[in-house]
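Troubleshooting log. The previous structure file for this entry was overwritten by mistake, so regenerating from the original sequence record. Sequence copied from the archived sheet and checked twice against the printout by T.R.
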Amino acid sequence: MNALLNIALFLHKTTSIIFPVPTSYTKGWHPLSFERMLSDVRPQKIEFVDANYVLWKGKNEYHMRPDVCPHQGALLSEGTLEDNCIKCSYHGLKIGPYKEAFNTKSKEVQGKCVLKQGILWWAYNKNEDKSTIPFCEKLEKSEHEKKIPITRFSIDIEASFSDCFKNSMDFHHAAWVHKNTFGNYAGEPDLVAERWNTKGELEGNFLYGSNDVYAKYTGGETDNSHVYCEPSTTYNIVNGKEGKFMIIHAAMRAITQEKTKWFVTAASNFVPSGPIGRAILEKMAKKVAIEEDGKQLAKMASDAEKKKHAFKFTLPLDTIYAGWNKKYETAEELERKLDSETNKDAMALIAEKLRVYNHSVNFYPHLKNTEWLTFNSPHLFKGTKVIDVFEEDTASEITTLRNGTVFKASGYMKKLSSDIVLVGNLTGKLKPTKDSLEIPVAKMPFKEHKFKILYLSDKYLLRKGLLSEEWDMMVRCVDGNCGEDECPTEMRLKTASALESELKNATNVFEINKIANQLISYNDTNSDFASRIKNTKWLNIKHRFGNDVLLEGYTDHLTKEITKKPNGSLIMAVGTFRQMNNSAIRIDIVNTTRQDRVSSEKIEIYNPFKNESFNALYLSEQLFVRKDSSLNWNVLSRINEDEYYPIDFKGNI
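Regenerated output below.
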């Protein structure tokens, strides 16, 4: 019976974020009773979801064993106490770890009992580490300060352990369930800072705005720290202004699949000291726990029904459930489940659990120079294949349709934060058949794509689009092998350095146009080109002025262009430049001169062009690519200070 029950309880954690029910065998310390409710004169029945035990006071300590007489199976909790043993009601045999016990078999007890902070705790393993008993330091200090009101009560909640424990982690329900006490929709936290402390406990820290009634006592906002301890205890410390605080401590024990016993301790100096303050505190704590949480939890569907119909989406602060789930399932176990899962809802739940395993990692370096095959995505249709290729600073998504048509979207890649990536300035190409040429897509449906990486490992990349909030799930392609007969990653973008080299060697306007259009996808469209070209010098190597040699220089606000004509004369135009937007730059001509020979004087000449403008489209350490107002490409190569100027005249620009 116990084996079947344990298997059933274990299965709770395999398909959804439903916490497994702690059984009497579960590692850790379980609450049995408040100290003040213990009896020294009679045995007490202690219920667990998997078995019933009997508790009694022996010689200066408490003992636990199954609530079954080892002789003929009478309930020991129905017996009496004598000589520190339980005297069975059926045959009068004494059961306990003392010499007065009937025989050796009658002396067996289970585990270890320890009193701490007003609760009797028990561990199935008698050698369990006592330092892992849930312990709240602030509650301990309150116990010693006699003026701090403290109340304790136990209640049976008609709900599963998972629902009860998750309720303490649910930071969204307070505004609705507790609207008649402390709840405040407007004060709901935007962020809960989660961390594992040195004791292996999960903490959730956040600020909460008090409602109008509670603001009178809290000062308007409270600093909250929720702590979760294995296997079934949680406490919340609420800090207000001027040293005011409240502690709500709830130790839980599942007694059936749909019933959980809570041992609630509350301490606070928000209320007056003495009996009146204690009465106010108890009334308030019982209203929150029994009338609000208890009533709502009794309205929950069974865990079996929830596995079928719930968990279809999450709210922003629901990630803490997956954080606690790390106690039950490793990343390796979850990846193995993802390997075999085909249901999209189940995949999403596994992904929610996985996201907590490396959410603080800087993903960007691990994303570069990788290839991934998509297996679950809103835009993955039957018969299609989608491969994502991430290089140093570009990304491509290559989609192969059922009819063999290949579509590629490419753009520059930029890190926005440790987990958010922008792929911008998107361009598209179509390849109708395997042997056909690529056809540029005139107009893309969108120019950029932002996504958030939620999990990245040696095998999987799990991300969500910032706008769609839908999962994209991918498996890593190893050594270019995506598990397919043909992997069309040859359609990826060439590197910027390779394209720069090709552009320098291009011989006609068609080649320049083709290569330049690929190269500009490497630059961020928000790049401030005007600032970046200040204090630089360039040789214009691709222009429309035949054999003229063009040299350009920029200072903070001035620009100078020197043109060497085939006959050896020099024309110099000086002007100011200003930024129109991130890429558009305007030059206003101030002065133009001509110098026929190196030794001759400069003569001021008339320039019909009082101003000109261009769009800067690509800028690197080597090249500057732009389009002038006539839509002609200009490709300029950077000149360093110590380089030879390709114009035979004295002086510099």
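Residues 361 and 455 are 9 Å apart (CA to CA). Archived copy saved in two places this time.
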